[in-house]
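Closing statement on the FE2/S2 (inorganic) cluster sub-project.
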Amino acid sequence: MISDATKARFAKEVAKYPAEQAQSAVMACLSIVQQELGYVSSESEKVVADFLGMAPMAVHEVTSFYNMYNQKPVGKFKLNVCTNLPCQLRDGQKALHHLEHKLGIHMGETTSDGLFTLQQSECLGACADSPVLLVNDRKMCSFMSNDKLDQLVDGIRAAEGKA
Ligand code: FES
């Protein structure tokens, strides 16, 4: 459900562009939706499309192209492991498999306690630091050996009282 307050935030983004280029604010509007609702549903895409005068499919193309947009609810901590080719050559896939085993879920799933969602990602721009992962689209973790992956997960669980 997109509130009037959220639409007011959309309007502030749209105001940054020439009147006939409202659709330039699409990424910002989708980010606002995700900040407020945690993910971007197809209903939210339609609201954004209406607001910006775009086709819903054009909005969906943006949501589905950038994997920072969540298309369904995710856990409190989203772990995106890079499995693009340079990282595959330097244990990126191994790191993903280690986390699947550690968390007891498969890639794309969320743990039953809602704490972790595990995803793979395209290049994060830190190939030389592989294996790399991004926590909640913000915090980059480099050189993630199995030991460091365990420390990361155990540290979050402890901090959240779920050790
Ligand atoms: S391929 Fe993984 S960071 Fe570039």
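The pocket of FE2/S2 (inorganic) cluster is lined by residues 82, 84, 86-87, 92, 123-127, 130, 132 (CB under 6 Å). With this model delivered, the sub-project is considered complete and its resources will be redirected to Aim 3.
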